[in-house]
Amino acid sequence: MVASGDNRRALIAGNWKMNLDHLQSIALVQKLAWTLKDRNFQSDHVEVAIFPPFTDLRSVQTLIAADKLEFSLGGQDLSPHDSGAHTGDISGAFLSALACDYVLVGHSERRAHHGEDDEVCVAKVQAALRHSLTPVLCVGETAEDLETVGQSAVPVAQLGAVLREISAEADIVVAYEPVWAIGSGTPATAEQAQEVCAVLRDTIRDVHGDAQADRTRILYGGSVKSSNIAGFLRGADVDGALVGGASLDAEEFAAIAQFEKHVTID
Ligand code: PEP
């Protein structure tokens, strides 16, 4: 049994960041598929998605299709534009053509290293939706934000900025990723994650109403491992996880995807 929202299928998403070339990506996807099969993983309740670098997407797409693997696929970023003179950028149309289902938008590394603000995130979410991709909008506070304004203010503002520019019918995924928890080995507590995810769901409800609030999946991300995933997924408003470092290890990521084995309902 899954302890998170009854009608929301859990999503375990692996963000590989700038790791693994296309040959290494094939090896990891094959190992992940064998490991999950060996452990008799049931995908009815849990969707597993992987977000490889752009240069790996075609190889991974081909492998998923050839071996009929039950993995969803996503890009780590997209251009706000559809085509044209934008050297180095990747259009949502290209990701769609590679059978991507998802695309990350506003990951804290994009916000910090590429100056992506809310305006850019709005344009990228709109571009994703134009190309039938589900944007996974990443929001979260820095350690400094946490001290000065608390944990919810910044993620709520980042989400609100996007919600106000999309329709109530749009399908999005929200990933609450406290910046201080990413890659630090210090995750938020399960209680902190649930608290912020609940406030984010209330924000969706306030802006667009019950239907979008009830169907939108909200993930927690930041130093997720197989040893802490069960606690996060106990939260009623936590519908899955965005996993960075631990998604590069097939055994560990498979164990995270099998969180249902460790979740007990109190
Ligand atoms: C991430 O980059 O989205 C992330 C959550 O990283 P990690 O799991 O390594 O903290």
Structure characterization notes:
The mean pLDDT is 95. α10 (229-233) links the parallel β7 (217-221) and β8. The N and C termini lie close together (12 Å). The protein has an 8-stranded parallel β-barrel with strand order 1-2-3-4-5-6-7-8, surrounded by 5 helices. The protein has a single domain (10-261), classed as Alpha-Beta Barrel (TIM Barrel). The longest helix is centred in the last third of the chain and has 19 residues, at 190-208. It has helices at residues 22-38, 57-66, 92-97, 108-113, 118-130, 143-149, 153-163, 190-208, 210-215, 229-233, 250-257, and strands at 10-15, 46-51, 71-75, 102-105, 134-139, 173-176, 217-221, 240-243. The protein contains 11 helices and 8 strands. By secondary structure, it is of the alpha/beta class. Helix content is 41%, strand content 15%. The structure holds phosphoenolpyruvate. Phosphoenolpyruvate binds at residues 15, 177, 182-183, 221-224, 242-246.
Concise structural overview:
The chain contains eleven helices and eight strands.
Which features does this protein show?
8-stranded parallel β-barrel; 15% strand; single chain; TIM Barrel; alpha/beta
What is Rg?
17 Å
Biggest β-sheet description: 8 strands, parallel, barrel
Query: Level of helix content?
Result: 40-55%
Bound molecules: phosphoenolpyruvate
In order across it, which strands form the biggest sheet? 1-2-3-4-5-6-7-8
How is the quaternary structure best described? single chain
Uncertain residue segments? none
Report the span from N to C terminus: 12 Å
How large a portion of the residues is in β-strands, by DSSP E? Answer: 15-25%
**Structural class, please?**
alpha/beta
- The CATH superfamily label reads Aldolase class I
* CATH third-level topology: TIM Barrel
How many helices?
11
Rough shape?
A: globular
Number of strands: 8
Output mean pLDDT. 95
Domain count:
1
Q: What's the level 1 CATH class? A: Alpha Beta
